Amino acid sequence: MRFFPVPLVIVLFFLASDHSTPTMDYSGWPEYLGGPDRNHYSSLTQINKENVQKLRIAWQYSMPDSGQMQVNPIMIDGILYAVSPYLQAIALDAASGREIWRFGEESYRHWATTGRGVAYWSNGADARIFHTIGSRLYALHAKTGKPVAGFGTNGFIDLHEGLGAQAGDKFVGCSTPGTVFENLIIMPLRLSEGADAAPGYIQAFDVRSGNLVWTFHTIPHPGEYGYETWPPDAWKNTNIGGANNWAGSSIDRDRGILYVPTGSASPDFYGGFRKGQNLFANCLLALDARTGKRLWHYQFVHHDLWDRDLPAPPNLIRVKKHSKWVDAVAQITKSGYVFVFNRETGKPLFPIKEVKTLPSSLEGEAPWPTQPVPVKPAPFARQELKDTDISPYAENREELLKILKATRKRRFEPPSKEGTLYFPGFDGGGEWGGAAADPQAGILYVNSTEMAWIQHMTEVPRPQDLAHMSPGERVYMQACASCHKTDLSGIPSSGFPGLKDISKRRSRDFVSNIIQKGKSMMPGFSYLSKEERAAVVAFLFSDEKAVIQPVSDGAIPYVPYEHTGYNKFLDSKGHPAITPPWGTLSAIDLNTGDFRWQITLGDTREFREKGYPQTGAENYGGPLVTQSGLLFIAATKDGMFRAFDKTTGKLLWEVELPAAAFATPCTYQINGKQYVVVVCGGTKLGVKKGNQVVAFALE
Questions:
Q1: Number of C-alpha atoms within 13 angstroms, CB side, residue 166?
Q2: E strands of 231-382, at which residues?
Q3: Which residues contact 506 (CB under 8 A, 6 or more apart)?
Q4: 68, HSE (Cβ side, Cα atoms, 13 Å)
Q5: How far apart are CA 630 and CA 644, in angstroms?
Q6: What DSSP state is assigned to residue 413?
Q7: Helix or strand or coil: residue 524?
Q8: pLDDT-based confidence at 226, cuts 50/70/90?
Q9: What is the pLDDT of residues 623-652, one digit of tens each?
Q10: d(Cα 491, Cα 342) in Å, to the nearest integer?
Q11: Secondary-structure class of domain 461-558 per CATH
Q12: What local confidence, expressed as pLDDT, does residue 529 receive?
């Protein structure tokens, strides 16, 4: 068994003398990731280590559309609620897969930002499903799927509500379900990651009326705590935004404490506009759920230059420290460490040290002098690459070694023109699938991708330097080229398609709508004027008139540096350029900070057919753990669904799915039968498309 360093996982704990977390009902799947503690945990035992080999498909449901699928369904009163790739909310009979109702239209694909699930609230006969489409939060009748007339306007509200006038025309979406507490729903936000980003304030809305109840400013206003950690005008949101919670939150309903992980400030990779520590970006916030008042916080990345968002909601668990039970919250992160805190006070339960940060070579940038690193637990993903870490399977090893030697690759190396290697990469390490946990035993289960990325920064020409270009090409170079490349070739290996032949594949209206509203993981550029959108569409369709117009400041904020794209470090065949494993699964004992086990997760078919050792694979989506001793996980690029012994990490069962499942499974029991459900299909990693909801049960 081989152990590797860990992507930044944050585990926060609260000491409550001898108080222990009240027993919860883990037999159903009533909330996103299983419950308010986000532990992906079930107490069901019908499916166990002895009979898991007898699992067979019980039913399948085909979504009405196809695309990126990351949904973790919930099950309430025999009904399974899910979200389609084009953001249609769907209710299914949880025992048969029969469709009960569907809300939304295929036209909503123009608003799509990838839906990971829905939230549920009820009071007597009033039962509601909360579902987001673009910036709209809908309240739907749980039994019929019809909008609730008394909620907002015609059943929806706009998530721009508490962000201020400056954010009115900026992209706002939501991928992750909101968190329900009493009569409130607290909403995550997905924003642009450029200088045009809206502020990522935390907002709580009344579940009945839709009225805004409270707002927490993650970029503090004058007089608020943390204001001095930003430039004086940062809160005005002219060229600084973000610090948003896109991953969702956890809630301790007994204490009334909301745990909110936040992302980086925008723009992502250049912080010259936002010099300072930048509270409350990259923080775990403990808020009074009724008022939004800050109780405590911990910042995991100061003045983030690496896009190290906190990628998943934290796990609320219980551990034993010094012979006393401690209520705990565990938050995984992309960078690969685990931090442990007291849940009520924020006091670390394992030591944390501040290590020196390297200086930046970019003019105007000022990295924060230190960054926090936990002493224990050890990282669950590797942290550094050496010259000996080039893949033994690569045919162009000498070329890859030359690239590796030419990049800056030390820990906390800032972005650079020369090239900076990120390892763990932009996607982690730990990712949005989150960690599973045994809430009473204090064991955390987390999957990790082992992929290196290389980033180059380049100086951005000022608008007047683009005067020789047509208006559409000018907008493209400013807003689109970093992901889709200046020659329109895209970065397919990282999920950014080429646009050279877009006119043969899509209509003008389709492209214009995506530019405005976004699709899948692409944010919308809603701040562009109708004329600017029309110009860039004409440029993409190769029929823009060659009229050169005078250059104005335009709607796009100027940033002096931008990255040249999200580039994975791959060999000539498209495989990771580094030594395996390329994916891992770990069990970490948070009582002691020690690993119980770590195994390779996933495989590469062509190498397996040649008899090579298991390689591991890139993975998205999290695990499911049960009281009966099982750990289920799909997630891997190889398209398999697996069950492991949670005590040892031994593989007990695997099956090939109709398509790769980049989603976290759920489990529940109806009429005496336990089901395990996973959603299959997506557009990531070049896998075949799929649109299936697949339910397994014992034969």
A1: 16
A2: 241-242, 250-252, 257-261, 265-266, 283-288, 294-299, 315-321, 324-332, 338-339, 352-356, 370-374
A3: none
A4: 19
A5: 6
A6: P
A7: coil
A8: very high
A9: 999 999 999 999 999 999 999 999 999 999
A10: 43
A11: mainly alpha
A12: 73
Report whether 633 contacts 624 (CB < 8 A). Answer: yes
Q: Which stretch of 106-120, 225-239, 330-344, 453-467 has the lowest confidence by average pLDDT?
A: 106-120
What token pair was written down for 428?
Answer: 């982690």
CA distance 332 to 337: 8
Backbone φ and ψ for 261, nearest 5 degrees, come out as -90, 135
Report the candidate in 422, 396, 386, 154 with the shortest Cα–Cα distance to residue 268: 422
- Percentages helix, strand, coil for the chain, rounded to the nearest 5? 10, 30, 55
Q: Are 39 and 317 in contact (CB under 8 A)?
A: yes
Sequence-separated (6 or more) residues with CB below 8 Å from residue 353: 372, 373, 374, 375
Among 107-111, 123-127, 141-145, 161-165, name the one with the lowest average pLDDT: 107-111
- The partner residues of 348 in beta bridges, in order of sequence, read 341
Please check whether residue 161 is in contact with residue 525, taking contact to mean a CB–CB distance below 8 angstroms: no
pTM: 0.89
Name the nearest CA neighbour of 203 among 129, 132, 255, 276: 132
Residue with tokens 């909110």: 260
What secondary structure does DSSP assign to 146-196, as a single string?
Answer: -B-TTSTBTTEEETTTTS-GGGTTS-EE--S--EEETTEEEE--EE-SSTT
- Phi, psi (deg, nearest 5) at residue 464: -70, -20
Q: Cα separation of 142 and 146, whole Å? A: 8
Report d(CA 396, CA 391) in Å as an integer.
Answer: 10
CA distances from 681 to 390, 593, 689 (A): 31, 35, 5
Half-sphere exposure of 177 (CA within 13 A, CB side): 31
Q: Two tokens at 80?
A: 């399974």
Are residues 480 and 536 in contact, defined by beta-carbon separation less than 8 angstroms?
A: yes
How many angstroms from the chain centroid is the CA of residue 119?
17
Rounded CA-CA distance 210/155 in Å is 9
Dihedral angle of Cα 581, 584, 587, 588, to the nearest 10 degrees? 80
Q: Which residues are bridge partners to 130 per DSSP?
A: 119, 139
* Cis before 267 (ω within 30): yes
Task: Show me where the domains of the chain are located.
Answer: 9-397+426-456+570-698, 461-558
The CA distance from 79 to 127, in Å, is 12
* Distance from C-alpha of 13 to C-alpha of 102, rounded to nearest angstrom: 40
- Predicted confidence at residue 527, as pLDDT, reads 64
Rg (CA), the chain: 24
Residue type, 635: A
Structure tokens at 434: 């989150």
Which of 517, 521, 515 minimizes the C-alpha distance to 502? Answer: 515
Between CA 662 and CA 68 the distance in angstroms is 9
Neighbour-count burial of 408, counting CB atoms closer than 10 A to its CB (0-12 exposed, 13-18 middle, 19+ buried): middle
- Rounded Cα distance between 41 and 51, Å, is 19
Tokens representing residue 172 in the block: 């706002």
Rounded CA-CA distance 251/247 in Å is 14
CB atoms within 10 A of CB 688: 11
What percent of the chain is modeled with pLDDT above 90?
74
Instruction: Give the tokens for residue 62.
Output: 């085909």
CATH of 9-397+426-456+570-698, one of 2.140.10.10, 1.25.60.10, 1.10.760.10, 1.10.287.770: 2.140.10.10
pLDDT tens, residue by residue, 426-440: 999 999 999 999 998
